[in-house]
Each structure stands twice: as C-alpha cells, then as structure tokens.
Amino acid sequence: MFPFQEHKKKYPDESVQVTEISKRCSDKWKTMSDDEKKRFFELAQKDAERYQAEVQAYGGEDMAYKKKKRQKKDPNAPKKALSAFFFFSNDKRSMVQQEHPDYKVGQIAQELGKYWKALSDEERQIYERRAQEDKGRYEEEMRIYRQQEGNNTVNVSGGSSSAAAIERVAGGQNIKPEIISSSAIPQSVAPNIVTVAPGQPLPTSVAPGTTIVQVMHPA
C-alpha cells in the first residue's frame, strides 16, 4: 500500500486506473533492493503499531476480531487472551486521560505508544509475564471448553442409513439440536429424550440431562 501512496504523491493529477497503478507498483517492488524495501517494511510496521495502539486506547478490539466474535454467540466461550500492550494500556489509559483531558482516542493511543516504547526491558517484562499467564489461562480454558463441547454431542445410529446427532442439554441449558430421522433414535434412550416436531418451538427449559431432539419422519 505504501508504494501505491508514494506513486499518488508523485503523480497526483495522473488519470490512471487503480489496477494499472497497482501493477506498476508491483513491477517496481520486484526490482527494489532489500535496502529499498526495508523503508516500506518499517512504515508498515509503524502503521500496524499505530492501529493497534488506537484500538487498545479505545478499549476495544479490532474489527476482524469483533466480526468473528459476533458470529460466535456462545457466551460460555473463554475470553480471548490479552497482549502485553493491552495490559499496559489498561493500566495507563486513565493516567493519560487525566494528563490530557482534551485528547481524542487517536491522541491517547499515540501517547500510550510513546510510554510503551519508553519502558525498560525490566518494566516491559512485567506486562509480558501477565500476557503469558493470560495466554496459558486462555489455552487451558479452551481445552476444557472444547472437551465439554465434545461431550455435549452424542452420536446415535438406528434404522436410518444417514448419520444422526443428538445434542444433550446440560444443567437445564438448551442447546439447539440437529434435525434427525425419528428412526435413528434408539429405544434405550427414548425415555430421556424430549422430541420436537419440525416447525415447533423448542422448550424454554428442561431437566438437566434431558436430550432435546428435533425429528423429521422418514419418507
């Protein structure tokens, strides 16, 4: 992106399609030496740091992660691990806001970035350790979470040739079931199953250990 921006600065009045400029920049990039490319890598790194600093200063998450989080609606999923800079920003944000009450989000982010870069290795290690501990917490919680998710699914087979799945309700919390053939439900587990006909609403609460199955009758 930076070679593209430089091209636009050099030729502001040039009427050329973006795709053509991109092609020229790509060709130019291929002919550059490592030393010439280094400057653009440094610019990209600084821009990435600026973006992350603004995100952290705002107290939020980047849009890509927010989109993924919106798609994943399970409230029981572990909270994502925080970075060292995130812990630092959480500690120092209020201080920067008090020192500069008129600062906007971007300015606070820049100030936090300056403080972060000014830390000694020893001071930075404090936040690195916190981030490492939080990473361990997240990995362990994810391990347990995935294990529990696996236990919540019980595979059954019966008179139907198609595979079927029954999702068990734990602790009275309903889990949306898959639609399966009624012939795929073993009689041995039928007493513990609450069946729901296609198009019917799921029950709002059931006894712990009960299985909700949405069935479709075989043709």
Automatic annotation (TrEMBL):
Its main location: nucleus. One of its GO terms (molecular function) is DNA binding. Residues 1-59, 78-146 bind DNA. The keyword Disulfide bond does not apply. InterPro entries: HMG_box_dom, HMG_box_dom_sf, HMGB. Signal peptide: none annotated. Residues 1-59, 78-146 form the HMG box domain. Keywords: DNA-binding, Nucleus. It comes from the Eukaryota. CDD domains: HMG-box_HMGB_rpt1 (cd21978), HMG-box_NHP6-like (cd01390). The keyword Nucleus applies. It is found in: Nucleus. Belongs to the HMGB family. This is HMG (High mobility group) box domain-containing protein. It comes from Ditylenchus destructor.
